Amino acid sequence: MAKRKTHFEDCDVLVVGGGMAGTGAAFEARHWGRDLKIICVEKANIDRSGAVAQGLYAINCYMGMQWDENQPEDHVRYARNDLMGMVREDLGYDMARHVDSTVHMFDEWGLPMMKNEKTGRYLREGKWQIMIHGESYKPIVAEAAKKSADKIYNRIMITHLLMDENEENRVGGAVGFNMRTGDYYVFRAKTVIVAAGGASHIFKPRAVGEGMGRTWYAPWSNGSAYALPIAVGAKMTQMENRIVLCRFKDGYGPVGAYFLHLKTYTQNANGENYEKKWYEHTKKMVGEYIDHHPTPTCLRNHAFIQETMAGGGPIHMVTKEAFQDPHLETVGWENFLGMTVGQAVVWASQNIDPKYTNPELTTSEPYVMGSHATCSGAWVSGPEDLSPPEYFWGYNRMLTVQGLFGAGDTVGGSAHKFSSGSFTEGRLAAKAAVKYIEDNKAKNIKVSDKQCEDFKNVIYKPLENYTVGRNEITGGTVSPSYISPIQGLQRLQRIMDEYVGGIATNYMTNANMLKRGLELLEWLQEDLENVGAEDYHQLMRAWELKHRALTSQCVTEHTMFREETRWPGYYYRGDHLKLDDENWHCLTVSRRDPKTGKFTLEKVPVYHIVDDKEKKKAS
Ligand SMILES: Cc1cc2nc3c(=O)[nH]c(=O)nc-3n(C[C@H](O)[C@H](O)[C@H](O)COP(=O)(O)OP(=O)(O)OC[C@H]3O[C@@H](n4cnc5c(N)ncnc54)[C@H](O)[C@@H]3O)c2cc1C
Predict the structure, then answer these.
(1) pLDDT tens-digit profile of 511-524?
(2) Which atom of ligand 1 is nearest to the CA of 60?
(3) Residue having the nearest C-alpha atom to atom 46 of ligand 1
(4) Of 52, 313, 320, 532, which residue is 20 to 30 A from 413 by alpha carbon distance?
């Protein structure tokens, strides 16, 4: 262990994860903190990392305030409706009022945007989405971060946050290791902005075996954004609100442009509009929410799932009509080239030409994320001018740990931020982090050598487990003393799939199943002490697994706590199969005690700030 080199880096602002939110944070930190030392640490390579690695075809969050296309209030109403009422409206409004300025910067930086030549307006795919030629999206925002930060560290996985030893509940930095050299890195920092993306692969995916990486959400998103704060006792919110996506089967190609721009539609195997069939059934479960416009994403999933369970599948996207128009046909194919080339390859391999064959759709396994049509994540302070007292404790986007900030998928309660909103939230978090330093809140932080050494021993333990344990193997790869990361991952995925509402049970769970799931997760945690890694890549896999497992415990605790089915189509509580506004029109907040590992949960009021304000103005 002593032979392994340790690098120390002291800085003011440490950004963990250089995805959309992390690049936004690095950029904005420099704007406000001219003389501050800003470091960004990225698990992959910032030029092609995170959910936007491959590019995107649309920026999904743009108000268009300059042309009065939408206002922030409209976006709050939209996100609130889609999430069945459960969003932090202060956070959503705050993001929405700043997001246009972010998109205008992307335009200036050279991101190819599609525009109406006459009016100069961005071409819209839908009410909120604007179309881009987005293959170069990630390298462009990475360049802004690279020019802003003092240093970007690529290929370093952050495994733990450091805590101040002078003041309780204050962050002191983070530690991790370089996956190529194996060196240990200690980043002592005055503030830390966690922007490490959401979690795929905690539920068993539809594609297993050789196709295991083929999921909708990037397989490298491993929930560090949640595990890092959970481990130090930061509060989390809405972790039960996992997302299930309706996408083209097997390739998970996006459907947004198809629905919105190409005006394609879905039908069951008999050519019927199945959504109508499930209207009365859904109304009994969720009441008037089914009459809202647009229909909330989860409720559309619900009709899909019910129809499939009733034997009406496969469900198809009707493309044959739109693809007769050569322009729309081109748009349909190009839509994949900028972000999911794999879908075109899958269709080629399955002999599907959407001009002549309507392609099949599927619902994905659940994922946990805070920036898409879902809002799991950390419980953060909102902005001073908007947030009610319960939502405000001094610094915008600061978690319940002092000096620890979050953005993008990390932050809970604020859905529909997408790429542009996540970058914007990174900017907001960075501005507040700089203010926190300027206000002298980060004075006298103590991180002892012992704390750093202890983490070093913990981080490299999987290598030791392997080195010792492999000697006991007499044949094959099964060791009596350690489990490999892939074995642990598959065990985790089965627990989540079968007990917490994955595809095995058609997203169904109940208190008894959750209780059993929690027991199994606890035993898995015990065994994860004995995970073995044969090289640095496997060491990364081991830590990804540990982060996924902790995230999963939190998801399961939250799912157990909310005794209703708030989002049918995302998951079902079979023992509480109805939406229950009387008892559950509230946000859920959890905290895991770092000393005991036990979770406590509470209900927190959800404030409908936007229409409240308007009502007050009118009266
Ligand atoms: C399949 C898919 C399609 C999407 N389509 C669109 C779209 O069409 N339009 C749109 O606007 N938005 C879209 N989005 C949403 C958008 O991609 C996300 O909102 C956005 O990327 C979230 O930003 P983030 O920074 O939180 O996470 P990410 O951009 O995923 O960045 C997280 C970063 O953290 C790094 N990281 C993770 N763990 C660690 C660790 N332990 N240590 C160090 N670094 C770490 C990762 O490598 C990554 O670079 C899509 C998302 C997905 C998953």
Answers:
(1) 999 999 999 999 99
(2) 11
(3) 50
(4) 52
